[in-house]
Amino acid sequence: MPEDTSRWTPGATSIVGVGATDFSRSSGRSPLTLAVQATRAALADAGVDPRDVDGIVRCDMDLVSGPALADSLGARDLTYWGEAGPGGSGPAAMVAQAAAAVSAGLASTVVVFRALNGRSGNRYGLVGERGAVGGDGSYDEFFLPFGMQTAGQFFAVVARRYAHEHGMSVDKLSEGLASIALAGRAHANNNPAAQFHDRTMTREDYFASRMLSDPLRLFDYCLETDGACAVVVTSTERARDLAGGAVPIVSAAQGTGPGVQPGLMFPALLRPSTPSWPSAATAPTLFGRAGVSAADIDVAQVYDCFTITTLIQLEDYGFVPRGQAAHLGEADLTLGGRLPINTSGGHLSEAYIHGMNHVVEGVRQMRGTSTNQVTGAELCLVTSAPPPGASALILGVDR
Amino acid sequence: MIGAEDVAVRPVVPVVDDVDTGGFFEAAARGELAVRHCGGCGTDLHLPRECCPHCGELSRTWRTVEPRATLYSWTVVEHQVHPAHPTPYTVVLVELDDAPTVRLLGHLPGRPPLTVGQPMVVEFEDVEGVRLPQWRPEEESDRA
Ligand SMILES: [Zn+2]
Protein backbone atom coordinates (compact mmCIF):
# COMPACT_ATOMS: atom_id res chain seq x y z
CA MET A 1 0.00 0.00 0.00
CA PRO A 2 1.42 3.43 -0.91
CA GLU A 3 2.29 5.79 1.91
CA ASP A 4 -0.59 8.00 3.03
CA THR A 5 0.66 11.42 1.98
CA SER A 6 -2.36 13.28 3.26
CA ARG A 7 -1.61 15.54 6.19
CA TRP A 8 -4.36 15.20 8.71
CA THR A 9 -3.81 16.92 12.03
CA PRO A 10 -5.54 14.94 14.79
CA GLY A 11 -7.88 17.08 16.85
CA ALA A 12 -7.37 20.35 14.94
CA THR A 13 -11.14 20.68 14.71
CA SER A 14 -13.89 19.74 17.12
CA ILE A 15 -17.59 19.19 17.43
CA VAL A 16 -18.81 21.90 19.79
CA GLY A 17 -22.55 21.32 19.76
CA VAL A 18 -25.11 18.61 19.05
CA GLY A 19 -28.85 18.73 18.56
CA ALA A 20 -31.76 16.50 17.66
CA THR A 21 -35.50 16.72 17.21
CA ASP A 22 -37.96 14.26 18.66
CA PHE A 23 -38.03 10.96 16.75
CA SER A 24 -41.48 9.92 15.53
CA ARG A 25 -43.47 8.10 12.87
CA SER A 26 -45.23 11.26 11.76
CA SER A 27 -43.59 14.60 12.48
CA GLY A 28 -46.26 16.74 10.86
CA ARG A 29 -43.43 19.12 9.91
CA SER A 30 -41.38 19.69 6.79
CA PRO A 31 -37.79 18.45 6.56
CA LEU A 32 -36.75 22.12 6.59
CA THR A 33 -38.48 22.68 9.92
CA LEU A 34 -36.88 19.53 11.32
CA ALA A 35 -33.46 20.67 10.10
CA VAL A 36 -33.94 24.11 11.66
CA GLN A 37 -35.03 22.63 15.00
CA ALA A 38 -32.10 20.21 15.22
CA THR A 39 -29.64 22.89 14.12
CA ARG A 40 -30.94 25.53 16.55
CA ALA A 41 -30.62 22.93 19.33
CA ALA A 42 -27.02 22.19 18.27
CA LEU A 43 -26.14 25.89 18.11
CA ALA A 44 -27.70 26.54 21.53
CA ASP A 45 -25.73 23.59 22.89
CA ALA A 46 -22.56 25.02 21.36
CA GLY A 47 -23.23 28.54 22.53
CA VAL A 48 -23.11 29.92 19.00
CA ASP A 49 -25.40 32.61 17.58
CA PRO A 50 -27.28 31.20 14.54
CA ARG A 51 -26.38 34.37 12.62
CA ASP A 52 -22.72 33.34 12.86
CA VAL A 53 -23.14 30.09 10.93
CA ASP A 54 -21.01 30.45 7.79
CA GLY A 55 -20.83 26.85 6.59
CA ILE A 56 -23.29 23.97 6.09
CA VAL A 57 -22.76 20.39 4.94
CA ARG A 58 -25.75 18.27 3.97
CA CYS A 59 -26.39 14.66 2.95
CA ASP A 60 -26.81 14.27 -0.81
CA MET A 61 -30.24 12.66 -0.26
CA ASP A 62 -31.56 15.42 1.97
CA LEU A 63 -34.48 17.50 0.69
CA VAL A 64 -33.04 20.59 2.42
CA SER A 65 -30.23 22.55 0.78
CA GLY A 66 -27.45 24.33 2.65
CA PRO A 67 -28.54 27.80 1.55
CA ALA A 68 -32.18 27.06 2.46
CA LEU A 69 -31.17 26.08 5.99
CA ALA A 70 -28.86 29.11 6.31
CA ASP A 71 -31.71 31.38 5.27
CA SER A 72 -34.05 29.87 7.84
CA LEU A 73 -31.41 30.23 10.56
CA GLY A 74 -30.96 33.90 9.75
CA ALA A 75 -27.30 33.41 8.91
CA ARG A 76 -25.58 36.59 7.78
CA ASP A 77 -23.54 34.98 4.98
CA LEU A 78 -22.87 31.43 4.00
CA THR A 79 -19.29 31.21 2.68
CA TYR A 80 -19.13 27.44 2.35
CA TRP A 81 -21.60 24.65 1.62
CA GLY A 82 -21.12 21.12 0.49
CA GLU A 83 -22.51 17.64 0.64
CA ALA A 84 -21.44 14.03 0.98
CA GLY A 85 -23.01 10.66 0.41
CA PRO A 86 -24.45 8.60 -1.05
CA GLY A 87 -26.99 8.52 1.74
CA GLY A 88 -25.93 6.70 4.84
CA SER A 89 -22.29 6.52 3.85
CA GLY A 90 -22.30 10.31 4.28
CA PRO A 91 -22.45 11.50 7.88
CA ALA A 92 -18.86 10.90 9.00
CA ALA A 93 -17.71 12.23 5.62
CA MET A 94 -19.97 15.26 6.09
CA VAL A 95 -18.26 15.99 9.42
CA ALA A 96 -14.88 15.43 7.72
CA GLN A 97 -15.86 17.93 5.05
CA ALA A 98 -16.83 20.48 7.71
CA ALA A 99 -13.49 19.90 9.44
CA ALA A 100 -11.70 20.36 6.13
CA ALA A 101 -13.57 23.60 5.45
CA VAL A 102 -12.61 24.95 8.87
CA SER A 103 -8.98 23.85 8.50
CA ALA A 104 -8.75 25.36 5.03
CA GLY A 105 -10.15 28.66 6.23
CA LEU A 106 -13.27 28.48 4.08
CA ALA A 107 -15.60 28.81 7.05
CA SER A 108 -15.38 29.04 10.82
CA THR A 109 -18.70 27.65 12.08
CA VAL A 110 -20.02 24.73 10.05
CA VAL A 111 -23.33 22.98 10.65
CA VAL A 112 -23.66 19.33 9.57
CA PHE A 113 -27.21 18.04 9.48
CA ARG A 114 -29.59 15.34 8.26
CA ALA A 115 -33.36 15.82 8.23
CA LEU A 116 -35.96 13.43 6.90
CA ASN A 117 -39.53 12.27 7.15
CA GLY A 118 -38.37 8.69 6.75
CA ARG A 119 -41.69 7.21 7.80
CA SER A 120 -44.41 9.67 6.85
CA GLY A 121 -42.67 11.06 3.77
CA ASN A 122 -40.52 9.31 1.21
CA ARG A 123 -40.09 5.78 2.55
CA TYR A 124 -37.19 3.81 1.20
CA GLY A 125 -37.44 0.64 -0.77
CA LEU A 126 -40.61 1.27 -2.71
CA VAL A 127 -40.49 0.66 -6.44
CA GLY A 128 -43.18 2.81 -7.95
CA GLU A 129 -44.94 2.59 -11.26
CA ARG A 130 -42.41 4.44 -13.32
CA GLY A 131 -42.20 2.50 -16.53
CA ALA A 132 -38.97 0.82 -17.53
CA VAL A 133 -36.33 0.86 -14.80
CA GLY A 134 -32.61 1.49 -15.00
CA GLY A 135 -30.29 3.13 -17.48
CA ASP A 136 -28.27 6.33 -17.19
CA GLY A 137 -25.68 4.73 -14.96
CA SER A 138 -28.15 3.55 -12.33
CA TYR A 139 -27.75 -0.10 -13.40
CA ASP A 140 -31.16 -0.79 -11.84
CA GLU A 141 -31.98 -2.76 -15.02
CA PHE A 142 -29.88 -5.64 -13.68
CA PHE A 143 -31.65 -5.75 -10.31
CA LEU A 144 -35.22 -4.41 -10.02
CA PRO A 145 -36.80 -6.54 -12.79
CA PHE A 146 -35.49 -9.67 -11.06
CA GLY A 147 -37.21 -8.86 -7.76
CA MET A 148 -34.19 -7.29 -6.03
CA GLN A 149 -35.87 -4.08 -4.94
CA THR A 150 -35.08 -3.21 -1.34
CA ALA A 151 -32.08 -2.77 0.92
CA GLY A 152 -33.33 -5.63 3.10
CA GLN A 153 -33.32 -8.04 0.16
CA PHE A 154 -29.83 -6.89 -0.77
CA PHE A 155 -28.44 -7.37 2.74
CA ALA A 156 -30.16 -10.76 3.00
CA VAL A 157 -28.19 -12.04 -0.01
CA VAL A 158 -24.99 -10.71 1.57
CA ALA A 159 -25.86 -12.33 4.91
CA ARG A 160 -26.38 -15.78 3.39
CA ARG A 161 -23.09 -15.50 1.51
CA TYR A 162 -21.32 -14.47 4.74
CA ALA A 163 -22.61 -17.63 6.44
CA HIS A 164 -21.48 -19.76 3.51
CA GLU A 165 -17.98 -18.30 3.33
CA HIS A 166 -17.45 -18.83 7.04
CA GLY A 167 -18.85 -22.34 7.04
CA MET A 168 -21.70 -21.59 9.41
CA SER A 169 -25.40 -22.26 9.17
CA VAL A 170 -27.71 -19.29 8.65
CA ASP A 171 -29.19 -20.12 12.06
CA LYS A 172 -25.75 -19.68 13.63
CA LEU A 173 -25.37 -16.37 11.81
CA SER A 174 -28.79 -15.30 13.07
CA GLU A 175 -27.58 -15.87 16.65
CA GLY A 176 -24.87 -13.28 15.99
CA LEU A 177 -27.30 -10.91 14.29
CA ALA A 178 -29.59 -11.26 17.30
CA SER A 179 -26.75 -10.14 19.59
CA ILE A 180 -26.44 -6.88 17.65
CA ALA A 181 -30.20 -6.29 17.70
CA LEU A 182 -30.35 -7.05 21.43
CA ALA A 183 -27.44 -4.71 22.24
CA GLY A 184 -29.14 -1.83 20.43
CA ARG A 185 -32.43 -2.55 22.12
CA ALA A 186 -30.93 -2.78 25.60
CA HIS A 187 -29.31 0.62 25.09
CA ALA A 188 -32.53 2.12 23.71
CA ASN A 189 -34.36 0.94 26.81
CA ASN A 190 -32.13 3.35 28.80
CA ASN A 191 -32.52 6.21 26.31
CA PRO A 192 -35.79 8.13 26.79
CA ALA A 193 -35.47 9.70 23.32
CA ALA A 194 -35.37 6.31 21.57
CA GLN A 195 -38.41 5.18 19.57
CA PHE A 196 -38.08 1.73 21.17
CA HIS A 197 -37.38 3.09 24.67
CA ASP A 198 -40.38 1.29 26.14
CA ARG A 199 -40.12 -1.93 24.15
CA THR A 200 -37.90 -4.61 25.61
CA MET A 201 -36.73 -7.56 23.52
CA THR A 202 -35.46 -11.04 24.31
CA ARG A 203 -33.55 -13.43 22.07
CA GLU A 204 -36.80 -15.39 21.74
CA ASP A 205 -38.59 -12.21 20.62
CA TYR A 206 -35.91 -11.70 17.97
CA PHE A 207 -36.31 -15.20 16.55
CA ALA A 208 -40.11 -14.93 16.72
CA SER A 209 -40.12 -11.75 14.63
CA ARG A 210 -41.46 -12.03 11.10
CA MET A 211 -39.11 -13.21 8.36
CA LEU A 212 -39.04 -10.43 5.75
CA SER A 213 -36.27 -11.50 3.39
CA ASP A 214 -34.73 -14.76 4.52
CA PRO A 215 -32.44 -14.91 6.48
CA LEU A 216 -33.31 -11.41 7.74
CA ARG A 217 -36.20 -10.86 10.16
CA LEU A 218 -38.11 -7.74 11.19
CA PHE A 219 -35.70 -7.09 14.07
CA ASP A 220 -32.71 -7.21 11.71
CA TYR A 221 -34.19 -4.10 10.08
CA CYS A 222 -33.77 -0.50 11.23
CA LEU A 223 -36.59 1.80 12.21
CA GLU A 224 -38.20 4.29 9.85
CA THR A 225 -38.13 7.72 11.44
CA ASP A 226 -39.23 11.31 11.03
CA GLY A 227 -36.62 13.56 12.61
CA ALA A 228 -33.33 15.39 12.31
CA CYS A 229 -29.90 15.61 13.91
CA ALA A 230 -27.22 18.28 13.62
CA VAL A 231 -23.74 19.02 14.91
CA VAL A 232 -21.56 22.14 14.85
CA VAL A 233 -17.91 21.95 13.80
CA THR A 234 -15.31 24.60 14.51
CA SER A 235 -11.62 24.83 15.38
CA THR A 236 -10.66 23.14 18.63
CA GLU A 237 -9.02 26.35 19.77
CA ARG A 238 -12.30 28.24 19.38
CA ALA A 239 -14.42 25.40 20.75
CA ARG A 240 -12.55 25.61 24.06
CA ASP A 241 -13.90 29.14 24.53
CA LEU A 242 -17.49 28.23 23.68
CA ALA A 243 -20.15 26.87 26.03
CA GLY A 244 -20.30 23.48 24.31
CA GLY A 245 -16.63 22.71 24.79
CA ALA A 246 -14.44 20.73 22.42
CA VAL A 247 -14.96 17.13 21.38
CA PRO A 248 -11.91 16.74 19.14
CA ILE A 249 -12.20 15.04 15.76
CA VAL A 250 -9.17 12.81 16.24
CA SER A 251 -9.53 11.19 12.84
CA ALA A 252 -11.80 11.21 9.82
CA ALA A 253 -11.65 9.09 6.68
CA GLN A 254 -13.56 7.97 3.64
CA GLY A 255 -12.83 4.94 1.49
CA THR A 256 -14.03 2.86 -1.39
CA GLY A 257 -11.30 0.28 -1.88
CA PRO A 258 -10.73 -1.04 -5.41
CA GLY A 259 -13.55 -2.42 -7.57
CA VAL A 260 -16.31 -0.58 -5.78
CA GLN A 261 -18.66 -0.77 -8.82
CA PRO A 262 -20.79 2.02 -10.30
CA GLY A 263 -24.43 2.52 -9.32
CA LEU A 264 -25.68 2.75 -5.77
CA MET A 265 -26.33 -0.23 -3.45
CA PHE A 266 -27.27 -3.32 -5.43
CA PRO A 267 -24.07 -3.36 -7.57
CA ALA A 268 -22.12 -4.19 -4.40
CA LEU A 269 -23.39 -7.74 -4.98
CA LEU A 270 -21.00 -7.92 -7.93
CA ARG A 271 -17.79 -7.02 -6.11
CA PRO A 272 -15.08 -9.67 -5.79
CA SER A 273 -15.97 -10.13 -2.11
CA THR A 274 -19.45 -9.33 -0.83
CA PRO A 275 -19.10 -10.08 2.92
CA SER A 276 -16.69 -7.20 3.37
CA TRP A 277 -17.32 -3.53 2.73
CA PRO A 278 -15.43 -0.36 1.74
CA SER A 279 -15.07 0.05 5.51
CA ALA A 280 -12.21 -2.44 5.25
CA ALA A 281 -10.39 0.12 3.08
CA THR A 282 -11.39 3.02 5.33
CA ALA A 283 -10.13 1.44 8.55
CA PRO A 284 -6.34 1.68 7.96
CA THR A 285 -6.67 5.29 6.79
CA LEU A 286 -8.79 6.17 9.80
CA PHE A 287 -6.60 4.51 12.41
CA GLY A 288 -3.41 5.63 10.67
CA ARG A 289 -4.40 9.30 10.83
CA ALA A 290 -5.14 8.98 14.56
CA GLY A 291 -2.12 6.84 15.35
CA VAL A 292 -4.34 4.38 17.20
CA SER A 293 -5.69 0.89 16.55
CA ALA A 294 -9.03 -0.85 16.98
CA ALA A 295 -7.86 -2.06 20.39
CA ASP A 296 -7.72 1.57 21.60
CA ILE A 297 -11.40 2.25 20.84
CA ASP A 298 -13.55 2.36 24.01
CA VAL A 299 -17.01 2.62 22.45
CA ALA A 300 -18.36 2.54 18.88
CA GLN A 301 -21.40 3.83 17.04
CA VAL A 302 -21.52 1.42 14.10
CA TYR A 303 -23.94 2.13 11.28
CA ASP A 304 -26.78 -0.33 11.56
CA CYS A 305 -29.37 -0.05 8.81
CA PHE A 306 -29.42 -3.84 9.25
CA THR A 307 -27.80 -6.08 11.83
CA ILE A 308 -25.61 -7.69 9.16
CA THR A 309 -24.25 -4.24 8.19
CA THR A 310 -22.90 -3.81 11.70
CA LEU A 311 -21.64 -7.38 11.99
CA ILE A 312 -19.50 -7.08 8.86
CA GLN A 313 -18.13 -3.68 9.91
CA LEU A 314 -16.98 -5.09 13.26
CA GLU A 315 -14.71 -7.32 11.17
CA ASP A 316 -13.80 -4.61 8.63
CA TYR A 317 -12.61 -2.29 11.42
CA GLY A 318 -10.59 -5.10 12.95
CA PHE A 319 -12.40 -5.60 16.26
CA VAL A 320 -12.66 -9.33 15.59
CA PRO A 321 -11.11 -11.62 12.95
CA ARG A 322 -13.07 -12.52 9.80
CA GLY A 323 -15.95 -14.86 10.55
CA GLN A 324 -15.84 -14.17 14.29
CA ALA A 325 -18.36 -11.32 14.63
CA ALA A 326 -21.20 -13.83 14.43
CA HIS A 327 -19.89 -15.43 17.63
CA LEU A 328 -20.28 -12.26 19.74
CA GLY A 329 -22.98 -12.23 22.38
CA GLU A 330 -24.99 -9.18 23.42
CA ALA A 331 -22.90 -9.02 26.62
CA ASP A 332 -19.83 -8.31 24.45
CA LEU A 333 -21.60 -5.37 22.81
CA THR A 334 -23.37 -3.69 25.74
CA LEU A 335 -22.09 -1.64 28.69
CA GLY A 336 -19.34 -3.53 30.47
CA GLY A 337 -18.63 -5.68 27.41
CA ARG A 338 -15.49 -5.76 25.27
CA LEU A 339 -16.92 -3.17 22.83
CA PRO A 340 -20.17 -1.41 23.68
CA ILE A 341 -21.82 -0.41 20.40
CA ASN A 342 -24.69 1.89 19.44
CA THR A 343 -25.18 3.19 22.94
CA SER A 344 -28.21 5.32 21.97
CA GLY A 345 -29.95 2.31 20.45
CA GLY A 346 -28.70 3.11 16.95
CA HIS A 347 -30.81 2.77 13.84
CA LEU A 348 -32.28 -0.48 15.04
CA SER A 349 -33.80 0.90 18.22
CA GLU A 350 -33.23 4.65 18.69
CA ALA A 351 -34.09 6.23 15.33
CA TYR A 352 -33.10 6.14 11.68
CA ILE A 353 -31.51 9.50 10.98
CA HIS A 354 -29.31 8.01 8.28
CA GLY A 355 -26.12 7.83 10.38
CA MET A 356 -26.36 11.31 11.92
CA ASN A 357 -27.74 10.12 15.29
CA HIS A 358 -24.58 7.99 15.57
CA VAL A 359 -22.44 11.15 15.37
CA VAL A 360 -24.55 12.88 18.04
CA GLU A 361 -24.27 9.87 20.37
CA GLY A 362 -20.51 9.69 19.78
CA VAL A 363 -20.21 13.27 21.04
CA ARG A 364 -22.31 12.45 24.11
CA GLN A 365 -19.99 9.57 24.96
CA MET A 366 -16.92 11.81 24.77
CA ARG A 367 -18.66 14.41 26.95
CA GLY A 368 -19.69 11.75 29.45
CA THR A 369 -23.39 12.50 29.00
CA SER A 370 -24.76 9.39 27.27
CA THR A 371 -27.70 7.62 28.88
CA ASN A 372 -25.50 4.53 28.46
CA GLN A 373 -22.19 6.12 29.41
CA VAL A 374 -19.07 3.99 29.03
CA THR A 375 -17.01 4.86 32.11
CA GLY A 376 -13.78 6.62 31.27
CA ALA A 377 -14.26 6.38 27.51
CA GLU A 378 -11.69 8.49 25.65
CA LEU A 379 -12.01 7.32 22.04
CA CYS A 380 -15.26 6.70 20.16
CA LEU A 381 -15.53 5.26 16.66
CA VAL A 382 -18.44 6.51 14.56
CA THR A 383 -19.08 4.78 11.23
CA SER A 384 -21.26 5.64 8.26
CA ALA A 385 -22.43 2.83 6.12
CA PRO A 386 -21.19 0.97 3.32
CA PRO A 387 -21.99 -0.33 0.73
CA PRO A 388 -21.46 2.48 -1.84
CA GLY A 389 -18.47 3.76 0.10
CA ALA A 390 -17.66 4.13 3.76
CA SER A 391 -16.70 6.95 6.08
CA ALA A 392 -15.81 7.06 9.73
CA LEU A 393 -14.68 9.30 12.58
CA ILE A 394 -12.73 8.84 15.75
CA LEU A 395 -13.88 11.33 18.38
CA GLY A 396 -11.83 12.04 21.47
CA VAL A 397 -11.66 13.92 24.75
CA ASP A 398 -9.99 17.35 24.97
CA ARG A 399 -7.18 17.47 27.48
CA MET B 1 -46.76 -0.05 0.95
CA ILE B 2 -48.10 -0.24 -2.56
CA GLY B 3 -51.42 -2.03 -2.41
CA ALA B 4 -52.29 -4.24 -5.38
CA GLU B 5 -55.67 -2.52 -5.49
CA ASP B 6 -54.09 0.92 -5.84
CA VAL B 7 -52.17 0.46 -9.05
CA ALA B 8 -52.49 -1.64 -12.16
CA VAL B 9 -50.15 -4.60 -11.79
CA ARG B 10 -47.53 -4.06 -14.42
CA PRO B 11 -44.28 -5.98 -14.57
CA VAL B 12 -41.01 -4.28 -13.72
CA VAL B 13 -39.23 -4.16 -17.07
CA PRO B 14 -35.69 -2.93 -17.68
CA VAL B 15 -34.50 -0.10 -19.89
CA VAL B 16 -33.08 -2.10 -22.80
CA ASP B 17 -31.48 0.62 -24.93
CA ASP B 18 -29.01 2.24 -22.57
CA VAL B 19 -25.77 3.05 -24.38
CA ASP B 20 -23.66 1.06 -21.90
CA THR B 21 -25.93 -1.86 -21.02
CA GLY B 22 -28.19 -2.33 -24.07
CA GLY B 23 -25.95 -5.06 -25.53
CA PHE B 24 -26.96 -7.40 -22.72
CA PHE B 25 -30.67 -7.11 -23.52
CA GLU B 26 -30.06 -7.21 -27.31
CA ALA B 27 -28.33 -10.54 -26.84
CA ALA B 28 -31.11 -11.79 -24.59
CA ALA B 29 -33.65 -10.88 -27.25
CA ARG B 30 -31.74 -13.25 -29.58
CA GLY B 31 -31.83 -15.95 -26.91
CA GLU B 32 -28.17 -15.49 -26.05
CA LEU B 33 -26.27 -14.52 -22.94
CA ALA B 34 -23.61 -11.87 -23.54
CA VAL B 35 -21.14 -10.06 -21.30
CA ARG B 36 -19.26 -6.84 -21.94
CA HIS B 37 -15.74 -7.78 -22.93
CA CYS B 38 -12.81 -5.38 -23.25
CA GLY B 39 -11.16 -5.68 -26.63
CA GLY B 40 -7.96 -4.18 -25.26
CA CYS B 41 -7.12 -6.54 -22.43
CA GLY B 42 -9.74 -9.29 -22.55
CA THR B 43 -11.37 -8.45 -19.23
CA ASP B 44 -15.07 -9.12 -18.75
CA LEU B 45 -16.71 -5.91 -17.48
CA HIS B 46 -19.84 -6.34 -15.44
CA LEU B 47 -21.49 -3.95 -14.77
CA PRO B 48 -21.13 -3.02 -18.44
CA ARG B 49 -19.54 0.33 -19.30
CA GLU B 50 -17.37 1.58 -22.14
CA CYS B 51 -14.29 2.40 -20.11
CA CYS B 52 -12.11 -0.48 -18.99
CA PRO B 53 -10.60 0.18 -15.55
CA HIS B 54 -7.79 -2.29 -16.27
CA CYS B 55 -6.34 -1.00 -19.57
CA GLY B 56 -8.19 2.26 -20.19
CA GLU B 57 -9.67 1.27 -23.53
CA LEU B 58 -13.08 2.61 -24.54
CA SER B 59 -15.07 0.00 -26.45
CA ARG B 60 -18.55 -1.48 -26.82
CA THR B 61 -17.69 -5.10 -27.58
CA TRP B 62 -19.60 -8.02 -26.14
CA ARG B 63 -18.97 -11.74 -26.12
CA THR B 64 -21.49 -14.54 -26.02
CA VAL B 65 -21.07 -16.94 -23.12
CA GLU B 66 -22.49 -20.32 -22.11
CA PRO B 67 -25.80 -19.89 -20.28
CA ARG B 68 -24.56 -21.85 -17.27
CA ALA B 69 -23.65 -20.66 -13.81
CA THR B 70 -23.19 -21.64 -10.19
CA LEU B 71 -25.30 -20.35 -7.31
CA TYR B 72 -23.47 -17.69 -5.26
CA SER B 73 -26.22 -16.72 -2.80
CA TRP B 74 -29.95 -16.04 -2.58
CA THR B 75 -32.79 -14.65 -0.49
CA VAL B 76 -36.36 -15.80 -0.10
CA VAL B 77 -38.52 -12.70 -0.10
CA GLU B 78 -41.46 -13.09 2.29
CA HIS B 79 -42.50 -9.45 2.60
CA GLN B 80 -44.07 -8.12 -0.56
CA VAL B 81 -43.07 -4.70 -1.83
CA HIS B 82 -44.24 -4.76 -5.45
CA PRO B 83 -47.51 -6.17 -6.79
CA ALA B 84 -45.72 -7.62 -9.83
CA HIS B 85 -43.64 -9.84 -7.56
CA PRO B 86 -46.01 -11.74 -5.26
CA THR B 87 -44.38 -13.41 -2.26
CA PRO B 88 -42.89 -15.77 -1.49
CA TYR B 89 -40.31 -15.61 -4.23
CA THR B 90 -36.59 -16.21 -4.41
CA VAL B 91 -33.89 -13.96 -5.85
CA VAL B 92 -30.82 -15.93 -6.89
CA LEU B 93 -27.35 -14.50 -7.49
CA VAL B 94 -25.23 -16.64 -9.81
CA GLU B 95 -21.66 -16.62 -11.12
CA LEU B 96 -21.24 -17.43 -14.80
CA ASP B 97 -19.20 -20.58 -15.49
CA ASP B 98 -17.76 -18.96 -18.62
CA ALA B 99 -17.08 -15.58 -16.98
CA PRO B 100 -16.54 -16.16 -13.25
CA THR B 101 -16.16 -12.45 -12.45
CA VAL B 102 -19.70 -11.83 -13.73
CA ARG B 103 -22.67 -12.24 -11.38
CA LEU B 104 -26.29 -11.98 -12.48
CA LEU B 105 -29.63 -12.11 -10.69
CA GLY B 106 -32.63 -14.29 -11.38
CA HIS B 107 -36.18 -14.57 -10.05
CA LEU B 108 -37.80 -17.87 -9.05
CA PRO B 109 -41.33 -18.21 -7.67
CA GLY B 110 -41.74 -19.76 -4.23
CA ARG B 111 -39.07 -21.18 -1.97
CA PRO B 112 -37.18 -23.76 -4.05
CA PRO B 113 -34.56 -25.84 -2.20
CA LEU B 114 -31.14 -24.39 -3.02
CA THR B 115 -27.47 -24.86 -2.09
CA VAL B 116 -24.59 -22.44 -2.66
CA GLY B 117 -22.42 -23.79 -5.47
CA GLN B 118 -25.14 -25.76 -7.25
CA PRO B 119 -25.34 -25.60 -11.08
CA MET B 120 -27.86 -23.16 -12.55
CA VAL B 121 -29.06 -22.69 -16.14
CA VAL B 122 -30.72 -19.85 -18.02
CA GLU B 123 -34.39 -19.85 -18.85
CA PHE B 124 -35.50 -16.85 -20.88
CA GLU B 125 -38.69 -15.14 -19.81
CA ASP B 126 -40.68 -12.79 -22.05
CA VAL B 127 -42.15 -9.82 -20.21
CA GLU B 128 -44.02 -7.14 -22.17
CA GLY B 129 -41.81 -7.61 -25.20
CA VAL B 130 -38.57 -7.75 -23.21
CA ARG B 131 -36.65 -10.99 -22.86
CA LEU B 132 -35.06 -11.53 -19.45
CA PRO B 133 -32.48 -14.22 -18.74
CA GLN B 134 -33.71 -15.94 -15.56
CA TRP B 135 -31.86 -18.67 -13.68
CA ARG B 136 -33.16 -21.98 -12.34
CA PRO B 137 -31.49 -25.06 -10.87
CA GLU B 138 -30.03 -27.38 -13.49
CA GLU B 139 -32.08 -30.52 -14.04
CA GLU B 140 -31.15 -34.00 -15.27
CA SER B 141 -32.52 -33.21 -18.74
CA ASP B 142 -30.34 -30.07 -19.08
CA ARG B 143 -27.22 -32.25 -19.15
CA ALA B 144 -28.46 -34.44 -22.03
ZN1 LIG C 1 -9.28 -3.54 -20.81
UniProtKB/TrEMBL annotation, chain A:
Gene Ontology molecular functions: acyltransferase activity, transferring groups other than amino-acyl groups
SUPFAM superfamilies: Thiolase-like (SSF53901)
Transmembrane regions: none
Ranges for domain Thiolase C-terminal: 281-384
Coiled-coil region list: none
Pfam families linked: Thiolase_C_1
Protein name: Lipid-transfer protein
Origin species: Nocardioides caeni
Automatic annotation (TrEMBL), chain B:
Limits of the ChsH2 C-terminal OB-fold domain: 62-124
InterPro entries for the chain: ChsH2_C, ChsH2_Znr, NA-bd_OB-fold, Thioester_dehydratase-like
ChsH2 rubredoxin-like zinc ribbon domain: residues covered: 25-57
Signal peptide limits: none
Classification via Gene3D superfamilies: 6.10.30.10
Xref: PANTHER family: BLR3430 PROTEIN
Protein name (database record): Zn-ribbon domain-containing OB-fold protein
